[in-house]
Amino acid sequence: MKELYKTALLAIENEEKNIARSEKNVINEMRHLISFLQKLLIKLKSEILAKGFNNTRDEIFFFKHVKPIILGKLIYYNRILRIESCSPINDYLIENFYEDQLKILDKDNRKYFQYSNFYKYYRSGRTDLDEKYFRLGQIDILEGVNSYVFEIDSNFSTYYDYETAKIIALNWLHSYLSSKKTKIQPKDENFFKVNDDIEISWTESKNALIELIYALHISNSISNGRAGLTNISKMFEDIFKVNLGDIHHAFYQMKYRAGTKTRYLHFLINSLERYMDNDL
Questions:
Q1: What pLDDT was estimated at residue 79?
Q2: Which of 120, 116, 136 has its CA nearest to residue 128?
Q3: What whole-number distance in Å separates Cα of residue 74 and Cα of residue 94?
Q4: Which of 20, 35, 133, 213 could cross-link with 160 by S-S, CB 3.0 to 4.6 Å?
Q5: Which segments of the protein form a coiled coil according to its record (predicted)?
């Protein structure tokens, strides 16, 4: 079954890369990706209903780690479509527009998750209640779940896979809106120039830089871990004059890469070791 999941997540990654290379505007990109994800989810549902799950562990893995990623992307891209469809053309209004959207998002976060026991459970990385939250037919309506639970497909939803998807999507949206707000703030074009002839720039892929940022953040290598992921990524964006966009989204994709997940970090290690060997 895990091969089926990897194939689905790889298909999303490839489609996102293809659409990023296209000349479509952001609204048409979102429409394309929403349609693609809907069809993929329907196909995945059909295959799972036909074959079932191999075991309980496989069922939990799907509803905790696979479906929420796909559904989270659907929620994420749909929200971006709605936001960008009504964004102002006037440059003087657009910064306030994204600031307002961030406030709406923060309000949504408080509304959905501030008093949610499940949110605390998921964010803490616990697994002891996974059988309750991520298996079919385990919904306890006496707990006071949201009303839409009565409308979900009980053969393909646990209710909490949707809650997980919302958490993921809102995190991605926060990064997206923050990057949009940062992107429109003016920067000193002469900052970080070494001299008149040389300008520091990042010449590897954006994913490579995101790998490096996450490694520095997770290892507490900058300010003993107090700097925060957003501040570190903003620092690198300023240094290299690059817009990294939604780094959380990119990182989630890396987690489901086929083969080596930390390709760039492995490349750095191998390059340094070859250099040291040759320098002996």
A1: 92
A2: 120
A3: 25
A4: 133
A5: 5-32
Return the closest-CA partner of residue 171 out of 237, 235, 250, 231. 250
DSSP type of residue 187: -
pLDDT digits (tens, 9 = 90+) for 25-65: 888 889 999 999 999 999 999 999 898 898 999 999 999 99
Does residue 100 contact residue 108 with C-beta atoms inside 8 Å? Answer: no
Report pLDDT digits (tens) over 252-276.
777 766 667 888 898 899 888 888 8
Distances (CA, A) of 128 to 121, 122, 204: 9, 11, 41
Tokens of residue 266, six digits: 């492995």
On whether the CB atoms of residues 47 and 4 are closer than 8 A, the answer is yes
Closest CA to 71 of 1, 10, 9: 9
Q: CA-CA distance, 78 to 194, in Å (whole number)?
A: 42
Cα distance between residue 280 and residue 211, in whole Å: 29
Strand extents, DSSP E, the chain: none
What is the DSSP secondary structure assignment for residue 128, as one 8-state letter? Answer: T
For 209, 212, 215, the CA distances from 273, given in Å and listed in that order, are 20, 18, 19
